[in-house]
Amino acid sequence: MPVYSRVGVVLIVLIVAVMAGCSGSTSLQKQDKEPPGNTGTVVGRVIKADSPGEALPGSRVSTIDGKVSTFADAQGDFVLRGVPLGQADTALVGLRAEAVKNASYGAQNVFEVPVTKGGIGSAQVTEIVIAILPLALGQPQSLIIMPSTATVDVRGEVQFSAAVAGLEGEIQVQPTWYLTKPALGSINPTGLFTAAARGTGQVVAVIGGLSDTAQVTVTASRAPQITSVMVNPSSLAPQGGTVTVSAAINDGDGLRSPDGVWAQLIDPESRSSTHVMSLVEGSSLKDGTFRVEIAINPNLVRHSQEDAMRTLTYGIRVHAVDNTGASSVSSLKNVTVAGVDQPIPPPAL
Fold first, then answer.
1. CB 145 within 8 A of CB 164
2. Can you point out the beta strands (E) in 189-310?
3. Which of 2, 73, 141, 152 is the most exposed place for a label (fewest CB within 10 A)?
4. Torsion angles phi and psi, residue 135, rounded to 5
5. How far apart are CA 53 and CA 58, in angstroms?
6. CA 275 to CA 294: how far, in whole Å?
7. Which residues lie below 8 Å from residue 15, measured CB to CB, with a gap of 6+?
8. Hey, which residues does 214 pair with through a beta bridge?
9. CATH says 225-337 is which class?
């Protein structure tokens, strides 16, 4: 065989061997390499903890490890795309917001925020408003959410508040609020929770290095919940007077306006009158405190001398009707009016 023929055969064999080796190496690399993980999207706003209505534009928002980051726009709004979730569809992610454009404010870490696979336009996008403390306030020492538990029906509202204290007492700031189960509803920058679906989850508040949680349960639509009724005062002098009736009520369908809440006054002779109650505390007709003042007549009854000390008793109930027509009524509260006369002293012996 000519020399060049033998050389050609050797070259062909070498080329085939190299190609086979490369093919095997590529195959192994493909097997060893993990498939790309899922990612999620977080949208929200960066605000001042001491003035929740004011944004912190230009703030840097990132995952805790800094691998994914973005900057808030002129309104403080941001979109953080490509948040890594590993192989899960939902993961708890740590976030960090830093007020890089405002030297008076620091940074805030928020841990264990639930983020679900999806992008803009998806119902799975996580929403959060991150509140950053001003550096001048220092670090808070305690954080307590109130109420610690709450039950509300679908479409209902619950106002949560956070008591924050520093070394010198209470600090007037808002924490970062979020939900462990975003499907339950939404919570705004001042702690107002609006229910969207049945279930139980936690409301989380974070400020500085502190956090606290409250449990919230969302039920199916139900009749108005009259959680408390107060009548003050509950006893009057013989000349009568005015009592204040207050009731805390929540209802996901909203209480009928303007006459969906009223107090029923029942006098000693079982005659009743209706007194419409007005919303005096709370964000809406879905959750608030209602109040009315009612005048009580003087006690002028005196059928006999033996009857002179007889007190008169009035009853008060609170009624509530929501926009679906469902209604509730409270238990009876009593108001007494003292007798008009003092008893005649016994005859002298």
1. no
2. 192-195, 199-207, 210-219, 225-232, 235-236, 241-250, 261-266, 272-276, 278-284, 287-296
3. 2
4. -60, -30
5. 16
6. 7
7. none
8. 203
9. mainly beta
DSSP summary character for residue 67: S
Quote the pTM value: 0.75
* Alpha carbon of residue 185 to chain centroid: 9
> Which phi-psi region, left, alpha or beta, contains residue 93 (left: φ > 0; alpha: ψ -120 to 50)?
beta
In this predicted structure, the answer to whether residue 177 has a pLDDT above a threshold of 80 is yes
Measured in residues, the chain has a length of 349
Model confidence at 23, in pLDDT bands (50, 70, 90)?
Answer: very low
Query: At a CB cut-off of 8 Å and minimum separation 6, what does 116 contact?
Result: 40, 85, 89, 90, 124, 126, 182
Tens digits of per-residue pLDDT, 116-170? Answer: 987 766 666 889 999 999 999 989 999 999 999 999 999 999 999 999 999 889 9
**Residues forming CATH 2.60.40.640 domain(s) in the chain:** 225-337
Residue 248 pLDDT > 60: yes
Domain with CATH 2.60.40.1120 in the chain: 38-219
Q: Given a cut of 60, is residue 50 above it in pLDDT?
A: yes
